[in-house]
Amino acid sequence: MHTQLSEEVFARFMALPQGEAYQAEYIWIGGTGQDLRCKTRTLNKKTNNPDDLPVWNFDGSSTGQAPGDDSEVLLKPQAIFPDPFRGGDNILVMCDCYKPDMTPIKGNTRLRCAEAMKKVESLVPWFGIEQEYTLFEADGVTPFGWPKGGFPGAQGPYYCSVGTENAFGRHIAEAHYRACLFAKINISGINGEVLPGQWEYQVGPSVGIESGDQMWVSRYILQRVCEAFGVIVSLDPKPIPGDWNGSGCHTNFSTEPMRKPGGFTIIIDALEKLRARHAEHIAAYGEGNERRLTGKHETASMDSFSYGVANRGASCRIPRAAEKDGCGYFEDRRPSSNMDPYVVTGMLIETCCL
Ligand code: ADP
Ligand code: MN
Ligand code: MN
Ligand code: MN
Ligand code: MN
Questions:
Q1: Which of 50, 167, 275, 330 is most buried when burial is the number of CB atoms within 10 A of its CB?
Q2: 335 preceded by a cis bond (ω within 30 of 0)
Q3: Taking every annotated instance into account, which residue ranges of this chain make up the domain GS beta-grasp (predicted)?
């Protein structure tokens, strides 16, 4: 544990007026493809257009994104959100990364996704992503709310729970929810999850590339909220081995033709296309997912592809309502909690629509 800094003293400084200067927090995906990095600069005018913001740079040799002898990586602003931490007119800026010649760096997954989304603009693709996460004490090993070195009672009472003995860390889920609303992220809900100390939030339906941008910024906000409470958040797909649920990132997907009368056949067509590329999708759906997709704990085994109406043991689920209405959406249950939403949404488009 480190020294607790005084929130009261901090609040005194944060209450000082900032004049006509605005703070822009540039955010990007780091070298592991899962970590987020950020740094701030002062701006002198307000804007809602990312193209009006300056391209910036960072030392890629410190994030595993460039060699030391040619270390500069460029940050291109792509999406702007109100900053729930600094408040006022300050902003969060989701960026992607380029080499000095403006070609994308190896880890830039946004560009390919944006290109795929551009091609299918007329289909108006919607994504609703269910982000599951698990909280840990600051020691990094004790799941939040669990007895030190021991185990809580078996799973059952924790999912969508209420009560001190069942719901661990609600402050974080609630604070994150409100912060996302402030940031104009299309957050659609939260719920307690099956594993004690595990929670879920949903972002969507969001259109095209906005889904990936909003998901990454929602994860940034989650980390900042947890930092404020001195709690650690894990997006590991199987944070606790054994008879405990893992964490997924179910991706609900539809196009306008799927949402219109007769859309059911287009949903089935998309699912058959996914069957044909199952192995490629699994390979891209998150690191360590093989520890989660065992066929137990509401997952389908990763070795084969399946789909079914209302079936939460299948790779993809068709909601009961979609069958009844003859249109709607489907849920790809395979992506893990640490998946890259640019990769997953882009691949769904490439496989199902291109
Ligand atoms: P589950 O029943 O699997 O727990 P959730 O309610 O947690 O599902 O999440 C469903 C997500 O799908 C929400 O974010 C919701 O906004 C989104 N969604 C709803 N309709 C559509 C649609 N037509 N296309 C894509 N996503 C959708
Ligand atoms: Mn859900
Ligand atoms: Mn869930
Ligand atoms: Mn779950
Ligand atoms: Mn789901």
A1: 330
A2: no
A3: 22-102
Quick check: 170 and 176 in contact, CB under 8 A? no
Q: Which helix (H) or strand (E) holds 342?
A: helix 341-353
CA of 312: how far to CAs of 104, 156, 299, 333, in Å?
38, 17, 7, 8
Strand partners, 92: 25, 81
Q: Tokens representing 38?
A: 């950020």
Give the closest ligand to the alpha carbon of residue 204.
1
- 130 C-alpha vs ligand 2 centroid, how far in Å? 5
> What pLDDT is stored for residue 2 in this prediction?
64
Per-10-residue mean pLDDT of the chain, 354 residues long, equals 83 96 98 98 96 95 88 96 97 97 96 98 98 96 93 96 97 98 98 98 98 98 97 98 96 98 97 98 98 91 95 95 97 98 98 97
Question: What is the model's pLDDT at position 282?
Answer: 98
Stated pTM of the model: 0.97
Look-up of token digits 């959406």: 329
Question: How buried is 176 (Cβ within 10 angstroms: 0-12 exposed, 13-18 middle, 19+ buried)?
Answer: buried
Q: Write phi, then psi, for 273 (nearest 5 degrees).
A: -65, -35
Directed axis angle between helix 263-276 and helix 341-353, to 10°? Answer: 110
- Structural domains present in the chain: 20-107 (3.10.20.70), 118-353 (3.30.590.10)
Residue 338, φ and ψ in degrees, nearest 5? -95, 15
Pairwise CA distance, residues 208 & 214, whole Å: 11
30 lines ligand 1 (CB under 6 A): no
